[in-house]
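Protocol step 4 of 5: obtain the predicted structure for the target chain.
Materials: sequence only (see below). No template structures provided, no constraints applied. The aim of this step is simply to have a reference model before the mutagenesis design in step 5. Sequence pasted as it appears in the construct record:
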Amino acid sequence: MTIATFPPEPKPDQGRSRYFGFCTDAKVIGIQYIVTAFFFFLIGGLLAMVIRGELITPQSDLVDRAVYNGIYTMHGTIMLFLFIFPVLNGLNNLLIPTMIGAPDMAFPRLNAVAFWLVPIFGFLLMASFFVPGGPAYSGWWSYPPVSIQNPLGHLINGQGMWITAVALSGVSSIMGAINFVTTILRMRAPGMTLFRMPVFCWTALAAQSLQLIGLPALTGGAIMLLMDLTFGTSFYRPEGGGDPVLYQHFFWFYSHPAVYVIILPVFGVFSELFPVYSRKPLFGYLYVALASFIIVGLGLIVWVHHMFPSGVAQWMRNLFMVTTMLIAVPTGVKVFAWLGTLWGGKLRLTTPMLFCLGGLFNFVFAGITGIMLATVPVDIHVSNTYFVVGHFHYVIYGAAVMGIFAAIYHWFPKFIGRMPYEGLGKLHFLLTFIGANLNFLPMHPLGLMGMPRRVSSYDPEFTFWNVVASLGAFLLGVSIIPFLLNMLSAWIRGPKATHNPWNAIGLEWLLPSPPPEDNFGEDVPTVISRPYGYGSGQPLVEHQDEIERRLELMEASA
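Step 4 output (structure tokens):
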């Protein structure tokens, strides 16, 4: 690295207009992903409010039952395909190149195409709700009917649009996975061996490898379903020799590992933030990194636990019960490593740290109920009840979304160049944590009592817990207001951020805030030690003191 030329001279600011066009800069694409994802998050959240508004009383008196079914389907598909996956791809675009010292993604144009597919299939998915035969009949949570034949008609009705959107989502995610894996494996900074790589990059590599293995099954399964409905093939139609259960295998072979695709990067966020805000090295770095790939291996052989009630052989139930329980071991390694990192640390309860602690608490609870669901008798008893809904939402919202909020608050100063407001951030955390637990915890006793999911009316004995859950959902909806106010106001007029406002260790914190277009350019520093060297006094890269001195001089003269 040539110290005399770093940091690079900032290029003329292109303004915010660059976020509205086709751009190959991974940082711009990352913000495009995140903003687009939160646009759809608001829509999916409003649909959740309608669902919980319907369920606050035993009678089905708010919306028509068929409309309720459609809203139920749309909420699930929007939150997964249009929020959680895009927002994680946004974080990958922001963090992977800057963390490993790459100037951009390996395939910048492919990266941009992968993003612009999101609004395309997002439009298709949303439009399917308003077209006859739409998501109320597709049934994200109840398998699509496969015995209806209407040649070519399904291409233009809601069901065909919905399935096509799911398939396009798979194509976009596969493009992204190819890019992320190639970038991590081929574009690391000098001296950054795999075991000097930040854990977030390990978890991203593991999650995207899982995407490449599992996602073709869902994409192919959706295309086969569309062919059954459109051209009269018989992949799933029993009257033509097909097997409807085959659809379940294609669906769940990817859709359970998809939970690990979602949660693994959040594990990476926890592993990055706990050392920063406890001022201690990450406990058991090597084991935390390797545990990610053990989770990938086991994650590929657990999908049948979703099919225990479907008549699978008992030996298969026993096998997949064991593999599902085993996945708790590498997951537990990570949890105990985080606790070891926190133990005896000088904790700073900033907004990112609060979201990490809340997400960890929720994930541990979700892990306990996950072990319960891995057990065949319990799973059969609570299958298709609200116990499963509660467990799923504790993982996805209680842990994953809270981890995403932590990441946004933590890296916002780096990529926007301004500081978010702590008061609004802590209010956001408080409302989110209380709202999420009030919303999702009551679903567990409801499931144990026997309340089925996917229904808009229920027996009066379930009223109390449904009222509590609905009030929690409404509080969760309110919680997004301080978040939006914080992000918008901080972006427009927040205090300017220094290059390292959290006093963190990592290559991204040796760049100006916000980073230049090509990050380090040709002057990539040489990494000489493992990450998370808090308290060791050992620099991460060569000439680190000189790099930081020049960054401080640049900030002082700005």
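Step 4 remarks: The mean pLDDT is 89. The radius of gyration is 24 Å.
Proceed to step 5.
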